[in-house]
Every structure is written in C-alpha cells, then in structure tokens.
Amino acid sequence: MRVSLATSGGLAAALQLGRPPLVVDDTELPVAVAGELAALVAAVRAEEPVPDDGRSRDASTATLTVTEAGTTTVLRRSDAASSPAWEELVTWVRRHAGARP
After folding, report:
1. CATH number at residue 38
2. Which residues of the chain, if any, have pLDDT below 50?
C-alpha cells in the first residue's frame, strides 16, 4: 500500500505551493508499522465522511491518495469536516513519510 498526503488551502496555503506530497510506502516499513497504516486506512474508509458545512472559509484541505493492489482511492477532507480517525491517519502519515526500516 502506498499513501500520499497533499494539503492545500488554509491560511498557510502559500507556504505549501510547489511542495511534493508526503509519501508512505508500506513495503519500506517494518511489518508491524505497515499493519498500523493498514488499520488506520481501513478505519477512515469505514466511516461516513463528516459533512462540511462550508462555514470555515480559511480551512485547509488534506488529500490522501491510497494505492493498493492496483486500485487508487482518493480521500479528501477539510479541517472543518475531519474526524478523529482522519486526524490520526494524517498525523501518522506526516510522522512516517520517508521512514526506512
């Protein structure tokens, strides 16, 4: 499984222009850590997305692209429509992007 994280918008949008997405590839992780990633992705996939009420015009948006077994899924949430499972996955990807065993 390969997961990439890109962010856009928000008050710091200009700081993110041109930055490549953060990428985590489970083939480069220890088995236990790769299992954590799979569990976090499964939790986000299983939940109903929180509706974005549109009231937070300065919210940033995180986009996770998950590629697994030849299938790509794009998951997108704004700060105003995140959930605990979403935040945990985004934080995990930020912490482990580029990690080596």
Report:
1. 3.30.350
2. 10-11, 13-14, 101
Give the domain range for residue 26: 2-96
Q: Which two tokens stand for residue 91?
A: 């934080």
Q: Looking at the domain assignment, is residue 69 inside a domain?
A: yes
Contacts of residue 7, defined as CB under 8 A and 6 or more positions apart, other chains included, come to: 16, 60, 61, 62, 63
Strand partners, 60: 9
Crossing angle of helices 84-96 and 31-46, in 10° steps, is: 150
Confirm if 92 and 19 have CB atoms less than 8 A apart: no
Tell me the sheet residues that pair with 67: 2, 72
**pTM of the predicted protein model:** 0.80
Which residues is 68 bridged to in the sheet?
71
